[in-house]
């Protein structure tokens, strides 16, 4: 079980809302979000309701300003706790529908291009664990939560293109 607190103002000021489970629509609890405190668990927060829009991975710690989590603005409309998994395995493919070259990973990869010579990933299959996919190398850029399951095309994980720079396992728990 996790706990996250959203504050309307910077520096943990103003109205706040404490949360310990997934919420698909936080709009009725606060109008803007300028700081967050994560007391336990790993969380993905979203700019839009229903787990849509830009995603931001937060682990235990304090985020006194939305720029601390690389946010583009003060809009947070949904959140999801990331469940714990002991082991991690993911298969990535260079083409849609699991076609083309396939590589299976069980460790973080800071640069898919350097390690695998992949510039783009068009489909993937998360066999075990949860992963964060980053648009750029060295865990930067847009982020996407990948839960166990099949992703036949990049739109299935919420991306607008197939550009992928790095992958990280979600392991830092509670």
TrEMBL record:
It comes from the Eukaryota. This is Beta/gamma crystallin 'Greek key' domain-containing protein. Pfam families: Crystall. SMART domains: XTALbg. PANTHER family: BETA/GAMMA CRYSTALLIN, GAMMA-CRYSTALLIN D. The gene is LOC114051406. GO terms for molecular function: structural constituent of eye lens. Belongs to the beta/gamma-crystallin family. It comes from Vombatus ursinus. Residues 2-40, 41-83, 88-128, 129-171 form the Beta/gamma crystallin 'Greek key' domain.
């Amino acid at each position: 079980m996790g706990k996250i607190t959203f504050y309307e103002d910077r520096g943990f000021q103003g109205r706040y809302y404490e949360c310990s489970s997934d919420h698909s629509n936080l709009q009725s609890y606060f109008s803007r979000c300028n700081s967050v405190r994560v007391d336990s668990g790993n969380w993905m927060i979203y700019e839009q309701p229903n787990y849509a829009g830009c995603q931001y991975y937060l682990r235990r710690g304090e985020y006194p300003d939305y720029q601390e989590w690389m946010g583009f603005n003060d809009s947070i409309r949904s959140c999801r706790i990331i469940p714990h998994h002991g082991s991690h395995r993911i298969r990535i493919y260079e083409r849609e529908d699991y076609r083309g070259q396939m590589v299976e990973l069980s460790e973080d990869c800071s640069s898919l291009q350097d390690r695998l010579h992949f510039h783009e990933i068009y489909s993937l299959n998360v066999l075990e664990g949860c992963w964060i996919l980053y648009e750029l190398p060295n865990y930067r850029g847009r982020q996407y939560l990948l839960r166990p399951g099949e992703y036949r095309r990049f739109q299935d994980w919420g991306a607008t293109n197939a550009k992928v720079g790095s992958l990280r396992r979600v392991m830092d728990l509670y």
